[in-house]
Amino acid sequence: MVLSIGRHRFSGIQVLVHAASWLPLVWIFLTYKFDPIKVNPIQTVTQQTGRIALIWFLLSLACTPAVTLLGFNPALKVRRALGLYAFFYAVLHFLTFSVLDYRLDLPQIFDLLVSKRYLIAGTLAFLILIALAITSTQQSMRLLGKIWQRLHQLAYPGAVLVILHYLWAAKAGTPGPYFYGAVLFGLLLLRVPLIKRWITTHKPPWLRQISQRLARPASK
Ligand code: HEM
Q: Which ranges does the record mark as transmembrane (predicted)?
């Protein structure tokens, strides 16, 4: 399936990713509008946008192993979009915090960002996401060459910082940071060359079947 909008052509998976990426925003807006009986609506929106940014960030990181281990090549076509949507939700998260919660009181915001450990981790992660988003174009890739590769490897420390940010922000015992931390740990393990090699040579039959099915050209 291919969708054409002006000069742009979108494959099925691209349409799916773009559509799915707007749904959380619509959902946040609708719950905010039609279910306003929340104890602290600003805190709720901060948490929702933060979690969506994290999930999309992890999905963008899962694209490379989906290609290298499962042979699911279409994932490469949506990696950048997923990363940019993660950035988009992180911007909404930051704006909810700074505009709605702290009414753009810049000195107070700055004081908080450099004094609370969960906000220091969040700010560093946000700065990494900004750098990755700005340099996500083909042009930057060509211009920066090897530096681009190194810069984009910062995505992993960035994701670790987000997990720390979540862990330190949430109440003790909240399962969320441990769950997403385990997903990130799994993705990091898949980058270890020895593990990568082991998986590709010892693929269980069911994984081999999935890989073959996913590796078929999209046109079939
Ligand atoms: C300057 C940057 C950032 C600021 C000021 C900020 C602010 C906050 C605040 C105030 C909370 C606590 C909300 C509460 O429970 O009261 C929070 C939680 C969270 N933030 Fe951030 N954040 C930043 C960056 C990020 C980034 C880049 C991500 C993800 C890509 C992120 C994801 C999260 C998550 C997952 C939570 C936990 C949500 C939950 O408790 O369910 N944050 N953030």
A: 12-32, 52-72, 84-104, 116-134, 154-171, 177-194
